[in-house]
Design goal:
Elements: H1 3-49, H2 69-84, H3 102-125, H4 136-145, H5 166-185, H6 195-220, H7 232-256, H8 258-263, H9 267-282, H10 301-324
Helix pairs in contact: 2-3, 2-5, 2-7, 3-4, 3-6, 3-7, 4-5, 6-7, 6-10, 7-9, 7-10, 9-10
Length: about 325
């Protein structure tokens, strides 16, 4: 190789060999930056979206004269969770809400309790007697509120076509409830605040609360271990959501059935039952821990929730017993 050829190689080849490391470094920094942006997106998104609304003073803004307060409350809770707070239980992976678990469990627990009440409305409260026609709006609402809470606009488990999302179904249920209450206020629909109807509704609630206590009891058998418990907070917040909704529903039902409660001298028993549900709905640990029920250092938040749940269930059964006499 001549000197000129060597100079040419030194002058033009050396810089080419240094481009690759620079590109690798630049690419690496770009990947790191992209990962950082993604992490920031999810962290900020979670902070913005996450909201567990357990305000026990929540009430419907307006209730037309002659309408049902408990029906108005059901519609108001749906509106708050679906649109004001935003429904997150069906968020796909690219939305920050998909990483949440406490809020979606709380929301779905609430909707489950509301669906139980909507079913009771269509079967009992919204009919003159069991042989009368089922109210179409109440029947529609009861069916829509049974819709799973984790369905997005696509449900690839059943079809590649777009489908009705959970939010759409719950919004439609709310419209039906509001339509029923408007007809009720104008005298075109029925709401029967009778003693036997109240008894049947309370029995339905008591059975559902009993199933929640069984889930807690089963999970408490695993309490106190050293492993990481990933289900304890799911059970806690799903149960808390149910009890929160039942507290608000029963508070407003107390106003719908005020005559029955006064006539049967249930005011004191009703207040104690509501207080137990309110205390259960107000439990708000920073971190849900599945300690042993008799643990000396680690708390058992499920056991605490279960205590108020069982106390409320016992008080509901006492009220039912009085109504049966």
């Amino acid at each position: 190789m001549t000197r000129d050829e060597s100079d040419w190689e030194d002058e033009y080849s050396a810089p080419k060999r240094s481009i690759v490391p620079r590109l690798v470094r630049a690419g690496g920094m770009g990947v790191i930056g992209l990962i950082g942006l993604i992490v920031l997106y999810y962290l900020i998104g979670i902070a913005v979206v996450h909201k567990i609304s357990d305000d026990t003073t929540f009430e419907p803004k307006t209730v037309a004269a002659g309408g049902s307060r408990s029906v108005a409350l059901t519609a108001a809770l749906i509106d708050r969770e679906v649109d004001s707070n935003r429904w997150v239980a069906n968020d796909p992976f690219f939305l920050p809400g998909s990483l949440l678990d406490n809020m979606p469990n709380f929301q779905q627990g609430m909707i489950y309790a509301l669906s139980r009440y909507a079913l009771e409305l269509s079967d009992q409260l919204g009919r003159t007697r069991g042989s009368s026609e089922v109210d179409k709006d109440l029947d529609n609402a009861a069916g829509l509120l049974k819709y799973p809470g984790d369905v997005w606009v696509f449900n690839f488990a059943t079809s590649w076509k777009p489908t009705a999302s959970s939010e759409e179904q719950y919004r439609a249920a709310r419209k039906s409830l509001l339509a029923y209450n408007q007809r009720l206020a104008s005298g075109e629909a029925t709401f029967e605040p009778r003693s036997d109807n109240l008894q049947a509704t309370l029995l339905r609630f008591t059975a559902d609360i009993g199933s929640s206590s069984a889930i807690i009891d089963q999970h408490l058998t695993l309490a106190g271990g050293w492993g990481i418990d990933t289900r304890v907070d799911d059970i806690f917040y799903a149960t808390k959501g149910r009890l929160y909704a039942y507290y608000l529903l029963l508070r407003e039902m107390g106003r719908d059935f005020d005559k029955v409660i006064v006539d049967r001298e249930l005011s004191a028993s009703w207040a104690r039952m509501l207080d137990s549900l309110r205390q259960a709905a107000s439990l708000d640990p920073v971190v849900v821990v599945n300690g042993a029920p008799d643990g000396a250092f680690v708390p058992s938040h499920l056991a605490s929730l279960g205590f108020y749940l069982l106390r409320a269930r016992t008080q509901l059964r006492e009220i039912v017993n009085i109504l049966q006499k």
